[in-house]
Write a structure and sequence with these properties.
The complex is a heterodimer of chains A (110) and B (113). Chain A is mainly β and 110 residues long. Chain A has strands at residues 5-6, 9-13, 18-23, 31-37, 43-50, 55-58, 61-66, 71-76, 85-92, 98-100, 104-109. The chains are: A mainly beta (110), B mainly beta (113).
């Protein structure tokens, strides 16, 4: 099974905020990432956070990290139909292995 | 800058046949990865190269999968013979070593019938 866990589906209305959650298991993770995958395409790096940070904001994206609970979230403000995709959470451990969750399929309804 | 290139984009073969995928990483990126992404799952690392040396191939089914990265640039991944369960998207990624950011190619979708 996956070491990194995510809920499989999220549906929001256009203009609302989306929050995608992820839990990871390796407390030695150095970096945590969010990738976006559109149909038929490879993974696109959206943002990342270093493990000693609590929050990172990048335009419409806000990443929150709770190291105590090993919980990572991605908030997308003012979600647009173009944000519909699968979002993958990933962690990089000290031995540089990158592990991915199964992905959360975000559907944005007009 | 140009991204990670992969070919072919799609491949359909019968079980027990052989297949090869090609990857050209971003120029200057020393580290190259091959991942297998089965439908509905996240990518799973198959093999990692640093220049032309293998760093991690612990998840590579070596009885049927092989990979090489001659001259530390392009890489090929081969499956011989293919099984039905090899149907997946094979993703190539590269990174420069900074922050471990990996840049992915569009993938090759393999269907084994």
């Amino acid at each position: 099974g996956e070491d990194v866990e995510q809920s499989l589906f999220l549906s929001v209305r256009e203009g609302d905020s989306s929050v995608i959650n992820c839990t990871y298991t390796d407390s030695s993770s150095t970096y945590l990432y969010w990738y976006k995958q559109e149909p038929g395409a490879g993974l696109q790096l959206l943002t990342y956070i270093f493990s000693n940070m609590d929050m990172k904001q990048d335009q419409r994206l806000t990443v929150l990290l709770n190291k105590k609970d090993k919980h990572l979230s991605l908030r997308i403000a003012d979600t647009q139909t173009g944000d519909s995709a699968i979002y993958f959470c990933a962690e990089t451990t000290l031995d540089n292995d990158m592990r991915f969750g199964a992905g959360t399929r975000l559907t944005v309804k007009p | 800058e140009a991204g990670v290139a992969q070919s072919p984009r799609y491949k359909i073969i019968e079980k027990r046949q052989s297949v090869a995928f090609w990857c050209n990483p971003i120029s200057g990126h020393a580290t190259l990865y091959w991942y297998q992404q089965i439908l509905g799952q996240g990518p799973k690392l198959l093999i990692q190269f640093q220049n032309n040396g293998v760093v991690d191939d612990s998840q590579l089914p070596k009885d049927r999968f092989s990979a090489e990265r001659l001259k530390g640039v392009d890489s090929t991944l081969k499956i011989q013979p293919a099984k039905l369960e090899d149907s997946a998207v094979y993703l190539c990624a590269s990174d420069s070593g900074t922050r471990g950011e990996q840049y992915f190619g569009p993938g090759t979708r393999l269907t084994v019938t």
